[in-house]
Amino acid sequence: MLKSDSTPARKTPSGPGGNHAPKENKRAQVVAGFLRQIEPAGSGAEPGIEGAVSDRTPSQEMTADLKPTEPSAIARPAGEIELKLLVDADRMADFSAAPVIAANARNNGTRKRLKSVYYDTPERALRRAGLSLRVRQSGTRFVQTVKTDAADDPLRRGEWEASVASLAPDPALALPFIPEKLHGHLGAQPLEAVFTADIHRHTRIVDLPSGTVEIAFDQGELTAGGKSLPVSEIELELKSGSASTIYEIALRLAEHGKMKPSIRSKSARGFDLAADKAPSARRPRKLRLDPSVTLDEAFATILRSCFLHLLQSLPAAEAGGNPEGVHQLRVSLRRLRSALDLMRSVGALSNLDVLRSEAKWLAQGLSAARDWDVFQLDTLPAIAKACPSIVGFDALGRVAALRQAEAYRKAHNALDDRRCAVFLISLGGWIETRGWRNDVAPEELGRLAEPAVNFAQRVLSEQHAKVLKRGRRFKSLTVDEVHRVRLATKRLRYLGEFLLPLFADRKSARKFARRLAGLQEELGAFNDMAVTASLLDGLGSEDRDSAIAAAAIAGWQACASTGVHRSLQDSWRDFTAVRVPWSRQAQQS
Question: 473: phi > 0 → left, psi -120 to 50 → alpha, else beta; which?
Fold first, then answer.
């Protein structure tokens, strides 16, 4: 059953393919606020180490005298620190001449033609493990590269290179960087060419006080069998200094023309092309937080997770062929807003409010598309199957499909809006520089250096108490009161996703999470009825048959919503009976 955003959706059939006017003052706050944060205080960061394994965790050597962050203070070496900007092919030359590049590039750069072949086993063992292996020819040189997918940080990927004799791969050189469990696959199944990339690259080096970035202007195509896919993108790769430099340049390029930030690699696009698949949407990875981490480090990890989920959801949402794309993008925005709300506890954060407002604007642009997906793929088919004697469901479905298509057009307009790109880049830069430190009052900075587990116990306990209070006398609650319980439960669910990993070594944490998820699923299904009522308003006015079907759905759900269902009551009882993992008894178990 397809659920609302409160519930992780199962696989469903494919769906179809008002953007609010941006408020200039709010957008200006985002840009100006971020640029103030990245005003350089000098370089001094260590250069990236070629071939090093990405260190995705900033230093935890924090003390109570924590200071507002200087960008260079948290620079981290990595195999590859990179962000892509997707641009129209006919605008590439304009971006190359953008003021931030023209004023800071060392020279006119170099131009190369890069021919690459991407390899995998017939069963795609490397791809399934989050790895890619390619051999690239540049002139007379051949370089074999193994890369990893982004694990918990949007910009950072592992990368290892070795020279080879030709475009044919040398698996022996790749084995040290491939998990041992895959060695047998490579031995039993010879690598095969999956797709090729033919790219014309114009590379320029840009030096800013905060760091040095290699900017590659790539145009060409990916080819797999008889299929091809154009490539037109700008790659920003950090060479030395702070990774915030990437966001600084991206933000200035966003002022120059239309583009979209992306972390989707050529490898991911090529494998989807070869398999004739649309971009997939992923659920967020489970967080891993050591109980000893500071609150500042916990905030950084949580926000990186939200940002990674957001960027990973964008391609599928933009493609529009899979309802899970819009669903996961909405979930990522809800998680982000919950994380930003969580940070209010340490003080008033001006940029936090602006970013949260922008996340809400983008989510509103997606909401109608998601609501029509649920109606078309879940609500209508289920009731039509239960009422076979009633005519008009097919006619109603055709009318709903038109509304669904219009909702997707509005969603695409929001994603295509320059405001969306500025928001994403500003958010990434704020997270990278830990901009919240600059907003926290000096006397409150010490709280960020305290153990996160103490903060988690207090916040989870308060929200859990709020859920129990709203759900008192649960069986007799009105529809509006159940809705208030749902909202409080949803917030507790997100807080649990963020903070329960601090208690992950306890069985009680896993049991509590399961019971909470079950309750939220039931509450989400209950809420879907209210959403359906708003969608049905005027939907059945097109003809008599669709009007009959609309009335049948309205009646069915009106009957279903007259009281709290037995299954919902059972989920509430199970939830209230479970022991919370932050209680003293649970800590001792």
Answer: left
Q: Which residue has the tokens 């750069």?
A: 109
Give the list of residues 6+ apart from residue 149 with CB closer than 8 angstroms, or none.
130, 131, 157, 265, 268
Asked if residue 50 has pLDDT above 50, the reply is no
Of 80 and 511, the one with more pLDDT: 511
In contact, 134 and 114? CB cutoff 8 Å: no
Mean pLDDT of 285-289: 88
CA angle 349, 352, 357 (to 5 degrees): 135
**Nearest CA among 432, 216, 212, 408 for reference residue 308:** 432
CB 353 within 8 A of CB 307: no
Which helix (H) or strand (E) covers residue 550, if one does? Answer: helix 544-560
Q: Which residue has the higher pLDDT, 528 or 553?
A: 553
Q: Which residues of 534-551 are buried (b: 16+ CB within 10 A; e: fewer)?
A: ebbeebbeeeebbbbbbe
The 3-state DSSP class for residue 206 equals strand
What confidence tier does 184 reach under pLDDT thresholds 50, 70, 90?
Answer: confident
Strands 192-208 and 211-224: antiparallel
Q: How far apart are the first and last CA of the chain?
A: 37
Tally: H helices and E strands in the chain: 22, 10
Q: What is the pLDDT of residue 538?
A: 67
Both structure tokens of 308: 């990674």
pLDDT at position 560 is 67
- Angle ∠(325,243,496) on CA atoms, nearest 5: 50
Question: Token pair of 400, please?
Answer: 């709903």
H, E, C per residue of 362-425: HHHHHHHHHHHHHHHHHHHHHHHHHCCCCCCHHHHHHHHHHHHHHHHHHHHHHHHCHHHHHHHH
**Least confident among 2-6, 134-138, 281-285, 499-503:** 2-6
Question: In this model, does residue 465 exceed pLDDT 80?
Answer: yes
Give the number of other CB atoms < 10 A from CB of residue 171: 15
Residues 301, 302, 304, 306, Cα dihedral to 10°: 160
* Mean of per-residue pLDDT scores for the chain: 84
- Is 509 exposed, middle or buried (CB count within 10 Å of its CB: 0-12, 13-18, 19+)? buried
